[in-house]
Amino acid sequence: MTGLPEHLADLRAAAPPHLLPGVLHRVGLADHYAIRPSILGPVFVAFTRRGVSRVDLAGDPAGFEAAYLARFGRAVVPADAPPPRLAATVDRALGAGRTRGIPVDPAGLSEFQAAVLRSAAGIPPGEIRPYAWVAREIGRPGSGRAVGNALAANPVPLVVPCHRVVRADGRFGRYSLGADESKRVLLAAEGLEIEALEALTSRGVRYLGSATTRIYCHPTCRHARRITASRRAEFRSPGEAARAGFRPCRDCRPATA
Ligand SMILES: [Zn+2]
User: Fold this and answer.
1) DSSP letter string over the chain?
2) What's the CA-to-centroid distance between 89 and ligand 1, angstroms?
3) Which tens digit of pLDDT belongs to each residue from 80-110?
4) Of 2, 34, 104, 216, whose CB neighbour count within 10 A is largest?
5) How many A from CA of 252 to the centre of ligand 1?
6) If you measure from the C-alpha of residue 34 to the centroid of ligand 1, how many angstroms do you get, rounded to a whole number?
7) CA of 82 to the centre of ligand 1 (A)
8) CA torsion sign, 104 to 183 to 167 to 191?
9) Per-residue pLDDT reduced to its tens digit, 142-175
10) Structural domains for the chain
11) What is the CA(10)–ligand 1 centre distance, in A?
12) Which one is catalytic: 162, 221, 249, 252?
């Protein structure tokens, strides 16, 4: 049902629809949402006092409000814009993929899902990591499939960049916001050279090392992108890199050091 206390559910039935948002706002029961531009087109961004609670492709407002109520047990009503400080960080994420430091309301997230989202939030723009990497980072090695499910159910796509977590075989996997293809669109907009990456993964290459530093990385790590072609070593596994005398990068952490 509505998730509202009974007396308010009665009110909902009795009040003319245009009065309801104001009433809920005054009793502090409603969250708010605004329409913001993004690389994927206009999106609804809902927020609470604790942070962003939901991001979805902007469509039918009534449908968004009903789905929000069903999912969070709270009403959501339109606002002109998020609070100014939140608006600035949200717009940087939606437009340029700069996602660090945006408060996310953790209500309704399991501990596992919250950990997965925190890990994904730390991946820089234009870089990708495999599902299994997130699983290892959060101390749950082997839970790559559950990580994939948690990311596909990410309530705040774009704000938490779940599009930067992909399959180990070079395919991009499912996406939580519209078409799976949107993942490629976002990553290309962030500067990821998709064709070069696919050329590597199609040959089974998963890591790149520098013969100068003897450090190896995920191919999209900013350090890997700086390796001169003549000094570049290719590896299929962390084991292969270790046997060649290379150690894992501390920034992209391709293996536990
Ligand atoms: Zn690295």
Assistant:
1) ---S-HHHHHHHHHS-GGGHHHHHHHTT-EEEEEEE--TTS-EEEEEETTEEEEEEE---HHHHHHHHHHHHSSEEEE-SSS-HHHHHHHHHHHHH---TT--B--TT--HHHHHHHHHHHTSPTT--EEHHHHHHHTT-TT-HHHHHHHHHT-SSBTTB-GGGEE-TTS-----SSS-TTHHHHHHHHTT--HHHHHHHHHTT--EEEETTTTEEE-TTSTTGGGS-GGGEEEESSHHHHHHTT-EE-TTT-SS--
2) 26
3) 888 888 999 999 999 989 998 899 999 889 9
4) 216
5) 4
6) 37
7) 35
8) negative
9) 999 999 999 999 999 999 999 999 998 878 888 8
10) 6-96 (3.30.160), 109-192 (1.10.10.10), 204-257 (3.40.10.10)
11) 57
12) 162
Q: What angle do CA 81, 84, 85 make, to 5 degrees?
A: 130
The angle at the Cα of 75, spanning 72 to 78, to the nearest 5 degrees, equals 120
Q: Are 228 and 217 in contact (CB under 8 A)?
A: no
Estimate to the nearest angstrom the gap between the alpha carbon of 127 and the chain centroid. Answer: 12
162 carries an active-site annotation: yes
Closest CA to 60 of 70, 51, 52, 68: 68
pLDDT greater than 70 at residue 7:
no
Question: If we measure between CA atoms, which residue out of 94, 174, 182 comes closest to residue 102?
Answer: 94
Place of tokens 């350090």: 223
